[in-house]
Design goal:
- The protein is mainly β and about 120 residues long.
- Helices cover about 0% and strands about 55% of the residues.
- The chain contains no helices and twelve strands.
- The radius of gyration is 13 Å and the shape is globular.
């Protein structure tokens, strides 16, 4: 399984970015996909997730600003981020349910063990 994020960058507060995660070797119908982020000196936290049937989950603080979606035909996961704030500055990671025995994060009732390398988002 490979997850490759793209779309990060630097943006001014109030701006928008759309992150993409191209996946290979993972069947979208088998599990949940998600986005996590980690700011310097802080723990990794769940941002949003979308399960096999399309139900979505969001961190309470991000509802209304971030939208997760997926393109099953292209095997791409997206995260649309609007009204960005400096507090959104972090490394953003794409993750998929399953995997291990390496790093595993439990969030929204799912265990995420497949990870991308991350894409940096900086809001100033």
């Amino acid at each position: 399984v490979q997850l490759v994020e793209s779309g990060g960058g630097s943006v001014q507060a109030g701006g928008s970015l759309r992150l993409s995660c191209a996946t290979s070797g993972y069947t979208y119908g088998n599990g949940c996909l998600g986005w996590f982020r980690q700011a310097p000196g802080k723990e990794r936290e769940g941002v949003a997730a979308i399960d096999a049937v399309g139900d979505t989950y969001y961190a309470d603080s991000l509802k209304g600003r971030f939208t997760i979606s997926k393109d099953n035909a292209k095997d791409i996961l997206y995260l649309q981020m609007n009204s960005l704030k400096p507090g959104d500055t972090a490394m953003y990671y794409c993750a998929a349910e399953g995997g291990g025995p390496g790093y595993i994060e439990r969030w929204a009732g799912h265990l995420f063990g497949y990870w991308g390398q991350g894409t940096q988002v900086t809001v100033s």
